Amino acid sequence: MKKDINNIHDKSYKDLYSNKEVFIDLVKEMLKASWASELTVDNLVLINKSYISSDYEETESDIVYKATIGDKEVIFYVLLEFQSTIDYRMPLRLFFYISEILREYAKNDNQKSYDKNITIPAVIPIVLYNGKKVWDVPQRFRDIVSGSELFGNSIIDFEYSIFDVNNKYTKEDLIRNKNISSAIFLLDQKIDAEEFIERIKAIALFFANLTDKDRMVLKHWIGNTAEPQLAEAAKKILDANKEEVEKMVANNAFLLKQMKEEAKKEGIKEGIKEGIKEGIKEGIKEGIEEKAIKIAKKMILRGKSIEEIIELTEVPIAEVKQLIKELQKTNKI
User: Fold this and answer.
1) 102, 126, 181, 267: which has the fewest Cβ within 10 Å?
2) Hey, how many other C-beta atoms are within 10 angstroms of the C-beta on 126?
3) Among the three residues 111, 142, 168, which one is the final residue of a domain in this structure?
4) 142/262 same-domain check
5) How confident is the model over 38-97, as pLDDT tens digits?
6) Are 20 and 152 contained in the same domain?
7) pLDDT at res. 214
8) Cβ-Cβ contacts under 8 Å for 19 (sequence gap 6 or more)
9) Which H or E run includes 24?
């Protein structure tokens, strides 16, 4: 149903939240932090810089904003995490990224060691994750520190915010929110094509607060992440009058049936491919094991010790002993 490719999601979300209005919507409506009301398009600056280490360039990306709230500087660090497996090192990795941001800030700000009034900006870490598994990584840094309870405030601590797209929000919650980020999360949850169209219908009927710009952003995101046929149908429904929406959804029943059939065929084809691959792997494995047993037999006949045989062939000790018994029965040793 959706183009299940990490870097497509990566780029789509990066494009999405590089839009100041959409980012402000995320922190105001989804994070619901008290300070979020102070953010405006005018006091928010997108920083064209990534802090992702080379090990993670293929599976994630980041967005960095700088803002001035009153006379206070703040940096927002948004990590877009689209790995299928959860990385339990996340608090430590965020610590490294935050440290690098502040190290760079101190260098560029030309801070002096004798300045009693030295200050640094607050760095707000945010993780956006769309994997299937529930995100169960500790959100506080001190929770991964061994013996943290012994040292009180003597250890470094911070807490990051997590947007777990698939598990933190129900369909009903997102529809009630009626904002652009809720619409995106609603469509990015793990759903089939039929449910995708149902959710497009809900957005078309109930998300009256979306501006023309929001709708344009949403359609662009759909075009980047959904299969072409489905994306085209979704865009038409979003453009339709409310009176036409129900009819258009009903008219898409044939398209959905066709897509289900294609997905089923693709699944069977992939299953056959995987079966062949596994068969080849199993055959190779069996061939290697058979050869190892032949070598083990030869070594037994040549009087080699059990330890030598196991070390060279990696045949289990029980199997080597069984081979010795069989050869003894046939009077070969």
Assistant:
1) 267
2) 23
3) 168
4) no
5) 999 999 999 988 998 877 776 778 999 999 998 899 999 999 987 777 999 999 999 999
6) yes
7) 94
8) 217
9) helix 20-25
Q: How far apart, in whole angstroms, are the C-alpha atoms of residue 104 and residue 107? A: 5
214 found inside a domain: no
Tokens of 267: 């699944």
Q: How many residues does this entry show for the chain? A: 333
Per-residue model confidence (pLDDT) at position 206: 94
Below-50 pLDDT ranges, the chain? 4-5, 276, 280, 284
How many other CB atoms are found less than 10 A from the CB of residue 208?
8
Tokens of 186: 């609603």
- Tell whether 35 and 162 lie within a shared domain: yes
- Within a domain: 202: no
DSSP secondary structure of 259-300: HHHHHHHHHHHHHHHHHHHHHHHHHHHHHHHHHHHHHHHHHH
Q: What's the domain range around 269?
A: 255-329
Sheet holding 72-81, edge to edge: 44-47, 60-69, 72-81, 122-129, 161-164
Q: Is residue 219 part of a domain?
A: no
Q: What angle do CA 49, 51, 54 make, to 5 degrees?
A: 120
pLDDT at 314: 84
pLDDT at 304: 86
